[in-house]
Amino acid sequence: MAALAAADSSVSSGPMAAKSQPSAPQTKSPGSMTNGRASTQGQWGRAWEVDWFSLASVIFLLLCAPFIVYYFIMACDQYSCSLTDPVLDVVTGRAQLSDIWAKTPPVTKRAARLYAAWVTFQVLLYTMIPDFCHKVLPGYVGGVQEGAVTPAGVVNKYEINGLQAWLITHLLWFANSHLLSWFSPTVIFDNWIPLLWCANILGYAVSTFAMIKGYFFPTDARDCKFTGNFFYNYMMGIEFNPRVGKWFDFKLFFNGRPGIVAWTLINLSFAAKQRELHGHVTNSMVLVNVLQYTAAPVLQAIYVLDFFWNETWYLKTIDICHDHFGWYLGWGDCVWLPYLYTLQGLYLVYHPVQLSTPYALGVLLLGLAGYYVFRMANHQKDLFRRTDGRCLIWGRKPKVIECAYTSADGQKHHSKLLVSGFWGVARHFNYTGDLMGSLAYCLACGGGHLLPYFYIIYMTILLTHRCLRDEHRCANKYGRDWERYTAAVPYRLLPGIF
Predict the structure, then answer these.
(1) Residue 16 near residue 350, CB atoms below 8 Å
(2) For a designed S-S bond to 111, which of 22, 128, 191, 308 qualifies (C-beta 3.0 to 4.6 A apart)?
(3) How many CA atoms within 13 Å lie on the side-chain side of 194?
(4) pTM of the predicted model, to two decimals?
């Protein structure tokens, strides 16, 4: 379920070539399909054809993912975050499914207005205010930036202003909390389930619009893919870079805004609710808000800020460079990310946990260590690629594997794969750092319930799948050179284990 994550948004795509030329595979439009089969096979992005297992997986996710989100949120609302009690109640006859549904708050006019205002505000920040942060913050790269070359040979330009949008949004949030009092800081928690229905409406609406657009008025028909299977096309997307106008890019907007900008606000609202209900904010809730890095609220704030500080780098990740825009990203970024990535803060509203000082310090150190590994691994890769290997990694000249590959247009290219630094420890050691942060995020909630640990379970499955997916593509691309690379760096994630 790799694209149902915005943490997906934070992960990069394995060992990157220091100087690889992007391939330009042949692409199709509906007119180039014969009996649902592509006349030629591109090797980028999603599949041209769908096998039975992929189709079954797609249908399963389309049917079950919305229910999974509802189940987790309902369990907290009605069963104090127990994942087993709802099932036991139904099995033993103490409750009917209709009873559970009847107790679920419906969408309300207040929630609809709140959500519409939120999305509209983020659209305006994204499209109407050019970035000024890059002019005043040393080291920050923002403003107009170029993305990777698409399979059709197009180089899209992006207005990178996510950090600016995050800062403006949060300045207004704190101004309201301490000065303006337009709304209660607990407003998100108080409308959490009604907002869930609004998020679902937007997720399905934008996914459906993207599919219709791909068929009838694509931004670039050469960057479209069709399988002949409706469900796969709907979930995985048809267009590579759907856009409205010159600057509104669906992938960049929905991956970064409104979900990730809201991430820290959601946890702040949970913290405000915990204080309202219990009279204080626990150190576990503080951890979850600070580490907001794929981990806990404390860890999460670090992660969100890191994402927007490195938004230009994000243009080089799998999400932008390989994935198409469909339900997978559209609904996933509107619903899956903001609702399931914030379960720890929601849990702590119902179960305030005060951690011992040594335990809290250990969680914090684990989260920070994970962040360091994640960020430095990606920094080493970027430095290596930007300098074509003419740099120092861990104080030494980097070791490389020289590779050659042939693109779909028949041209031969050369590249280098890094085997020094963190990339000599494991082939996806940045993912290992991500998982360390994710574990810290969950450990901040103590060990009373399973629900807060959904995140580390999900991220382990997600990143393992992404790891295998990326390596399959690299093996096809580099052939025997990839075998040389895996012999030099034998482990994927955990040295000596996997």
Answers:
(1) no
(2) 191
(3) 17
(4) 0.81
- Per-residue pLDDT, 48: 61
Supply the DSSP string of 82-136, one letter for each residue: -SSHHHHHHHHTS--HHHHHHTS----HHHHHHHHHHHHHHHHHHHHS---HHHH
Cα gap 104→87, rounded to integer Å: 16
Q: Which two tokens stand for residue 36?
A: 């649902």
Q: 322 φ, ψ to 5°? A: -130, -35
Cβ atoms 284, 360 nearer than 8 A? yes
Report whether the peptide linkage leading into residue 297 is cis, meaning its omega lies within 30 degrees of zero: no
Q: What is the DSSP string of 197-237?
A: HHHHHHHHHHHHHHHHHHHHS-S-GGGB---S-HHHHHHH-
pLDDT over 80 at 47, yes or no: no
Backbone angles phi, psi at 356, to 5 degrees: -65, 155
DSSP code of 11? -
Q: What are the Cα distances from residue 196, in Å, to 110, 208, 479? A: 13, 18, 46
Mean pLDDT, residues 302-312 taken together: 75
User: Each residue of 208-224: pLDDT tens digit?
Assistant: 999 999 999 998 888 88
Token pair in block for residue 20: 């690889």
* Strands 248-249, 400-406: pairing kind: unpaired
Of 498, 439, 438, which Cα lies nearest the Cα of 471? 498
Residue 75: its pLDDT value, please? 95
CA-based diameter of the chain, in Å? 68
* Strand pairing category for 412-418 and 155-160: unpaired
Phi, psi of 157, deg, nearest 5: -105, 145
Tokens 């002949």 locate to 228
Side chain identity at residue 455, one-letter code: Y
Q: Half-sphere exposure of 444 toward its Cβ, with a 13 Å CA cutoff?
A: 40
Burial string for 360-390 (b: 16+ CB within 10 Å, else e) reads beebbebbbebbebbbbbbbbbebbbeeebe
Give per-residue pLDDT as tens, 186-242.
999 999 999 999 999 999 999 999 999 999 999 888 888 888 889 999 998 999 889
329: its two tokens: 């990203």
